[in-house]
Amino acid sequence: MERLCYKFDLKSQHLSPSHAVLTRYSSSPSPPSSCSSHSCPLLLDCSNRRARRRWRTCSASVAPVEPEPDYRRSLKSIGRGLIGFAAAAAAFASVCSDSPAVAESLTVAFPASHVREVNTVQRTLVEAWGLIRETFVDPTFNHQDWDSKLQQTMVEIFPLRSADAAYNKIGAMLSTLGDPFTRIISPKEYQSFRIGSDGNLQGVGLFINAEPNTGHLVVLYCVDSSPAARAGIHEGDELVEIDGEILEGVSSEVAAQKLRGRAGTTVTVKVHSGYDGGSASTVREVKLPREYIKLSPVSSAIIPHRMPDGNMTKTGYVKLSAFSQNAAADVENAIQEMERQDVDAYILDLRNNPGGLVKAGLDVAQMWLDGDETLVNTIDREGNLQPINMIDGHAITHDPLVVLVNEGSASASEILAGALHDNGRAILVGHKTFGKGKIQSVTELHDGSALFVTVAKYISPSLRDIDQVGITPDVQCTADMINVPKESLFKDKSSVLTLEADSCIMVAEHELDIQESKGTAS
User: Fold this and answer.
1) Is 411 among the catalytic positions?
2) Which of 148, 389, 432, 505 is paired with 24 by a 20 to 30 Å CA distance?
């Protein structure tokens, strides 16, 4: 039987073919207590030269387990030399005990599936397992034997006949880590992720997310002047169907992929709206053309404001809906334009911003800060605290600042809010944030899929834990709309009239008045 071997470089995190070995397994009921690097059924060979003399023996990590009868039928088809493969395959994770602290590479050998698509996923499994083994934030892997998880999952994948089923097995393996943010996504889903991060899109102009309690797909944001906006789809609407397919149980990533497509084509959606021109809750069908969508995560406006003493001032309003690659540049352009118009104070709106590129969040934070302030602290898997500091920072403006947050503000939004608040630069107004304090690496695997791995946690500059806790604002408010007809809210949500009717913005302006009365520099 052919045993495929791959070498996983721990430094570069690159997987490459090593050598192939033809192996015939005996009918021994249990694996040997020790084995050489040429006789392990599934071999993880730790090839660090410095550690080779000390760690040369590899031993079976688990006792053999008899597979189910349907496994036995599948395995019989491989060849005559596999009389004892049932016992060997069930225990085929043999680990050479190299020290993770000094390991440089792993060589992994495994029985190859005769189904080409499944064999590809086998390689993906090894690649994902190795990345998690070396980088996952919890070195106990949720208090389980991570090496034996590879053995178990490879046994489950071997007899499968489709790539989708094999990917589901990898997903099940990752779920045992107890971290919903460590996950694998398909090549198509990864392309959708990259499109969202790059800021270029062919689609209908909708940002959607799954509602945590119900799983329903809800519109987070509608791109201005997009086909979805022109069709009257609004924030908070629920997507029910896409091209006749009911979306119950469908992830937001899969639904987003269905909405995207070549410009000039169309997609039909059913939308459940809680409000529709004065009528009750309705479900309507809308046919949307796909177009080239310019994704700018930033919108801005200047709000005229009357101070308590009667003087008129200008408040610069910046709404940041996501942290894409162009987010920081767009925020900088908006601030500089408002500075030219002599704005007196600012409101930075991070409500319902789910995060994105952490670097973009740090770049935006530096636009408001001077010197060498700490932007955020990270804690790695060994418990080491590492601050991320500015270097000779120069703020674009020193005008008073209020940051709006709510339960939809997560990840990079929380980093940005924490950096500005803990450095005394901004007052936070709104609701407690989501509480995602995890830092992730994203690695494209050999088949075009991508692995998201939580590699560290972050805490605020004042050492406040954020993960599963969130940030509580200085002033609480609810985003009620007052003194304006609901019809006008849906016509232009960024209009000054709509902004002035937002109760949280009213609270923010009151806080800015207080800062102005204390003589804050501008």
Assistant:
1) yes
2) 148
